[in-house]
Amino acid sequence: MRKRVILCFVAIAVLSLAPIPVKSALRTLGILHNPGHLLVFAASGVLLLADARSLSSGLRRMAFILLFCAATEALESVIYRNPFEWVDLAIDSLGIALAPLLLGAWRGLKYRIRA
Known about the structure:
Layout: H1 2-16, H2 20-25, H3 33-49, H4 55-80, H5 86-114
């Protein structure tokens, strides 16, 4: 599990810091940009929260993801000298906030299927 989490965040960082031509070629810009942010950070939140042992552990993990989002946005701003994308950070935060709800729904569905 830990290797998957590390690979996930490395992939997010690489894609976030990729030059615009690379992002255009991968079609991460345009109409799917904001939903992509939401999906990626909701999924990464679920991935990190799935094996959290306590509420405080889960909260620390969510704080880590939020700091990771802010750091990648800040690095992107510094590297490419573009304005900090507050909208991206807000959408990332929404995805992170949805992660516990999605995880709970998934666990509830698995429980009902088993029953």
